[in-house]
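Bench notes, afternoon.
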Amino acid sequence: MSRNPERNDRKSGKKPAFGDRSAPRAGGPGGGAKGPSAGGPDRGGWNPNPKPKAFSDSAPRASRAHGRAGADADNFVWGRHPVIAALANPARKGMGRLLATADRAAELERDKLANGHRIEIIEVQALDRMLPPGAVHQGLAFKVQPLEGVALEDIAGDGGVIVMLDQLTDPQNVGAIFRSALAFGARGIVVQDRHSPALAGALAKASAGATERLPCARVTNLSRALETLADMGWRAVGLDGSAELTLEQALDDRPTVLVMGSEGDGIRRLVAEHCDTMARIPMPGGFESLNVSNAAAVALYEANRKQTS
């Protein structure tokens, strides 16, 4: 079978269609949310980032008078937790430009967190001008080249839970999903290369460093990726608010791919047809809407519980 050409130096099928899902979906991941996703143990360093690309649902940023083009944010990681996680990633060794205020530089040196990177001390105002408006950098920024992802087969070897994101493009949601996926022990995240943001900038900040620790496979076609995973013994469960089964009913202890769709459109028809079943998050409170990242956290908790029970 073909392997994703985007690799790093860390190593960690065909499914029949299930029902006619060509009709538009009324709900998303859990009864109103239109799509979702959420983590795992410390997996050390890996190469998560692809070629930088703009977020399709984000408005273009206006450049500052003394700043730089907003697209360059895809080459920056900022904030204390994301930067420290990037510095601890062996794949980052010897690369990047580490910028820190005097206080943060002293902290990095005291706690030996720079891991061989030279620290450039910079004033807060100068750092503000280098980053997008409103970036909460906490006195730390790391300018790096995007890193590559892992092959799909590298995160599918030993069972567990994998999260697949179908055209989720909001950096805050995707970052939060990475954070939850790492926390709940997912083996990795699968995204479609053409419809996913770079794992840097606001996304890396929202993930609190999880993008540096959780493997991400970027594939050309999600349906084919599900076929490959099915051949390897994985079962795909798609989240859909209009599904008959609840997550508790749909999940079991087999290797599971949680498929999350965008909040606007849910899971696309062809991707849904490659899922073994669809499931919803029951919402007895009567308010049938969850943010996609919240729905992902709920789904990951339930999937992890089934795996370990």
